[in-house]
Amino acid sequence: MKNTSNQAGGWVLDHTKEKIEIQFPHRPENQVLDRLRKSDFQFSWPMGIWWAKDTPKNRDLANEVAVHEGVIGFKGTYAQRLRGIV
Known about the structure:
Elements: E1 9-14, E2 19-23, H1 30-38, E3 42-44, E4 49-53, H2 56-65, E5 66-72, H3 78-83
Parallel strand pairs: 1-5
Antiparallel strand pairs: 1-2, 2-4, 3-4
């Protein structure tokens, strides 16, 4: 049950912190909040985001409750980043 409404939040994968961040434009429905609370996600009050370690299970949940908006940072070694491989 993928959330594709215009009220859906967006999520990004942050390689530099190895975590997933979900942000909603408004308070999400109680069903969504319950799923996030029962999972590995935690809410950051200062940042206004839900976040969790990057795992396949957490990516699946993020895809179900929000729309993927991109990637932050680079994955790979320092040498690979210098050469532009990653």
